[in-house]
Structure to design on (842 residues):
């Protein structure tokens, strides 16, 4: 493998710093392709074992066999950040990737969503996740693989159901309802009190218990870990470990277009400005860049999915051209993909990029729809709503311990897939250990209650 | 990472080159698939001609397991965003399927879905079953039934060159030779030849008769159920016998012998006269098999509706077969009502067992119950054999 690229790392870092990027130091490591693939499958270099990762692994293997996907790098934010580069990368690819990684490092250090989640989770997510994996391995040794798997089946099925607006380590709900306002001491009260020689009735003696949950709770992982009637403490720990990793994944998920676009913008710009790169390597790297940000596969006229690298890259170029780097850095700090696309994808840019909306009928017909900018923006974003999951919340615990979940079908526009949802309820039932019910709507929009067992 | 290359010292090898987590979790997935396949083995096996065509494995197509998440119902029209040269109103792809048909089940609609073909070794399945259900191994019938066989036994100074035992001959040379440094020199005295001897052995040969009622009252499902049961019986018996033959007899009011593929295709009409079947079996035994030299088994599957007039004849015919058989089993396949053996044929077997013959019956209503039937017969059979010996 070529080690030449390492000579360039320092120089690219200097150039990036001069260009105004602010990043924590990054550890670069070249790893075999097989390991790159595992990082892509697990989302983290070391993560808990679960059979569902095995399924993704096989899909990934097949993809790689068909030559559809090639991974150049994976980067993990933190202080220091970790960047894994594929050993099979050539010199040009590694130069490009180094610049790209620094763009990510700048983004994850400055974007508020990233910063907030890193403050809560840790700046060392890689080590943290490895720790979880070890903790779960200990649980397997103590309680057996089967029991741990049941818990992970449930926890990982709910991994998107967190509430990032709450803090990672949130306190339990208050146990009692807040006391009512003290009675106003007006004339009437005084006279009324005077009527009864035994004194005024004090309402404060009997405090009322607050219901659990006091409001529909979206953070199902936290709610179950905290309020499940019969969960063992090691099972709760597994739920909380999964939840912590979800808190790490959320900003990665919610800023993908911005983040990849930002890194692509910077690798292109740094490459242009780096006069120390040999001519041939520069040309190869530019070729590689254009492959990465290519919107449509080489042999196609039309793509039915949007390449986030391309969209983000184009948006950033436009913003920096129109408003300058200073303003772009502000946007990078403050937005996530929702704000980014809604605020900055203009009619002109959409036309220039040839973006369109289409509808795909269940019989396979695909038809291009009328131009409509807000609808186009939502089509780009709808898979990202609510961490990509339906809005399901815990509503109530019945006296017998039955957990009532409710699906907000009004927000989501339609009901849940009943087969899958019932399976998820079965997973949850095994850790909740009392019945679990979920209300949603069926295909006709009338109420439907699913339950396990 | 710079220490990689051709001559990486072992201590510096990175852990991820020695261990693949993806493969570990994939194996776990594979294990889960196999577990769930095992639970459905009777149905799976019922579909294929696997009893006698020498197949050593069963191939089972399975879908990858899905780890379920909450998902929204699929809408009729999905909207998405695309990129390229397209005007509003362009149809990028025409309808390809009947609208609303198919793709009902979960996971069915994902494109590029991967199907696995699991290959299960029948021997493994059977071993696993026997272990799991703690079934006894059968004892071959010993006694008059004997085979002769040549076995190796001892050495001699004379013999055919092909049976020269070089190792032993050399030992003789070493023993005889006084001086360890002298050149070895074989004489005829040193040579040792392996000898063969004739040995009488208990027969390990079995013939299994499968008899199936194909009258009009037997539904297709009944027959599949019987087939599935027959399959596992054969596998169970194969564990014990070096050589085994199977004979397939079907009957309505008459009886015929069939080959296996035909056997499960036959469908007859009309009534049921079980005695014809038993007589056919009797006839085949007399023609081809010596009961003293092989172990005979008869398994009969029927819905039990024997014609009323046949009671006596059937009883006689069955007894004459049971005299020579190691075991006779009756499985009543009734997919409709579970009448639990309260039928003509059911009573016939109950009588037989009551008068001390190794016989058993089982009411088989569902695929889930096939294991129950197999277990019932193999435990009952070994008990019957213990009692008789």
């Amino acid at each position: 493998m070529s080690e030449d690229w390492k000579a360039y790392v320092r120089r690219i870092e200097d150039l990036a710093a001069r260009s105004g990027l602010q990043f924590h130091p990054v550890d670069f490591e070249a790893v075999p392709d097989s390991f790159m693939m595992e990082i892509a499958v697990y989302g983290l270099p070391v993560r808990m074992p679960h059979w569902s990762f095995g399924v993704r692994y096989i899909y990934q293997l097949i993809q790689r066999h068909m030559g559809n996907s090639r991974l150049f790098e994976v980067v993990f934010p933190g202080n220091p950040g970790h960047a894994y580069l594929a050993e099979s990368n050539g010199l040009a690819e590694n130069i490009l990737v180094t610049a790209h990684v620094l763009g990510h490092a700048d983004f994850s250090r400055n974007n508020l969503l990233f910063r907030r989640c890193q403050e809560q989770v840790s700046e060392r997510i890689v080590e943290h996740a490895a720790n979880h994996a070890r903790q779960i391995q200990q649980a397997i040794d103590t309680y057996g693989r089967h029991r741990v798997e049941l818990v992970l089946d449930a926890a990982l099925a709910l991994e998107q159901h967190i509430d990032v607006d709450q803090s990672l380590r949130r306190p339990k709900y208050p146990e009692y309802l807040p006391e009512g306002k003290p009675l106003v001491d007006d004339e009437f009260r005084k006279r009324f009190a005077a009527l009864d020689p035994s004194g005024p009735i004090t309402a404060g003696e009997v405090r009322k218990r607050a219901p659990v949950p006091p409001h529909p709770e979206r953070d199902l992982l936290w709610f179950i870990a905290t309020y499940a009637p019969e969960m063992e403490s090691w099972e709760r720990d597994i739920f909380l470990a999964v939840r912590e990793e979800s808190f790490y994944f959320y900003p990665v998920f919610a800023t993908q277009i911005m983040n990849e676009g930002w890194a692509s913008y910077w690798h292109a710009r740094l490459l242009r400005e780096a006069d120390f790169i040999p001519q041939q390597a520069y040309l190869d790297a530019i070729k590689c860049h254009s492959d990465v940000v290519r919107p449509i596969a080489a042999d196609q006229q039309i793509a039915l999915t949007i390449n986030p690298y391309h969209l983000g890259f184009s948006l950033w170029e436009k913003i920096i051209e129109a408003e300058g780097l200073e303003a772009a850095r502000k946007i990078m700090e403050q937005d996530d993909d929702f704000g980014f696309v809604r605020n900055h994808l203009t009619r002109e840019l959409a036309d220039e990029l040839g973006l369109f909306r289409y509808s795909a009928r269940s019989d396979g017909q695909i038809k291009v729809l009328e131009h409509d900018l807000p609808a186009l923006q939502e089509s780009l974003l709808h898979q990202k709503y609510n961490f990509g999951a339906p809005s399901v919340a815990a509503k109530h615990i019945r006296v017998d311990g039955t957990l009532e979940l409710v699906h907000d079908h009004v927000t989501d526009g339609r009901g849940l897939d009943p087969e899958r949802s019932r399976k998820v309820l079965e997973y949850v039932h095994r850790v909740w250990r009392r019945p679990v019910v979920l209300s949603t709507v069926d295909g006709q929009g009338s109420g439907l209650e699913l339950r396990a067992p | 990472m710079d220490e990689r290359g051709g001559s990486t010292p072992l201590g510096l090898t990175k852990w991820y080159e020695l261990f693949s987590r993806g493969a570990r979790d994939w194996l776990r997935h594979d294990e889960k698939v196999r577990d769930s396949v095992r639970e459905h083995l009777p149905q799976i096996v019922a579909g294929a001609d696997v009893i006698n065509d020498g197949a050593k494995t069963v191939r089972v197509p399975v879908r990858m397991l899905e780890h379920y998440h909450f998902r929204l119902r699929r809408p009729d029209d999905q909207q998405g965003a695309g990129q390229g040269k397209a005007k509003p109103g362009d149809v990028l792809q025409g309808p390809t399927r009947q609208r609303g048909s198919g793709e009902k089940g979960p996971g069915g609609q994902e494109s590029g879905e991967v199907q696995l073909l699991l290959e299960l070794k029948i021997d493994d399945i059977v071993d696993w079953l026997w272990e799991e259900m703690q079934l006894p191994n059968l004892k071959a019938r010993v006694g008059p039934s004997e085979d002769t066989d040549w076995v190796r036994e001892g050495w001699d100074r004379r013999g055919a060159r092909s049976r020269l035992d070089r190792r032993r001959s050399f030992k003789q040379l070493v023993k005889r030779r006084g001086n360890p440094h002298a050149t070895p020199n074989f004489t005829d005295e040193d040579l040792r030849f392996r000898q063969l001897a004739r040995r009488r052995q208990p027969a390990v040969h079995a013939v299994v008769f499968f008899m199936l009622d194909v009258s009009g009252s037997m539904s297709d499902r009944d027959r599949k159920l019987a087939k599935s049961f027959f399959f596992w019986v054969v596998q169970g018996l194969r564990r014990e016998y070096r050589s085994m033959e199977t004979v397939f007899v079907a009957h309505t009011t008459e009886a015929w012998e069939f080959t296996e593929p035909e056997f499960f295709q036959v469908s007859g009409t009309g009534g049921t006269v079980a005695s014809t079947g038993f007589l056919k079996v009797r006839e085949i035994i007399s023609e081809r098999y010596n009961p003293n030299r092989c172990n005979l088994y008869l398994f009969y599957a029927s819905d039990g509706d024997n014609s009323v007039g046949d009671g006596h004849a059937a009883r006689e015919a069955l007894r004459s077969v049971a005299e020579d058989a190691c075991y006779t089993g009756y499985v009543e396949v009734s997919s409709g009502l579970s009448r639990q053996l309260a039928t003509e044929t059911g009573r016939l077997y109950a009588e037989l067992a009551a008068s001390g013959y190794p016989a058993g019956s089982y009411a088989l209503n569902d695929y889930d119950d096939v294991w129950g039937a197999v277990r019932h017969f193999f435990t009952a059979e070994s008990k019957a054999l213990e009692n008789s010996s």
Q: What stands out?
A: The mean pLDDT of chain B is 75. Residues 225 and 367 of chain B are 6 Å apart (CA to CA). Chain B has three domains: 16-67+113-122, 146-201, 204-388.
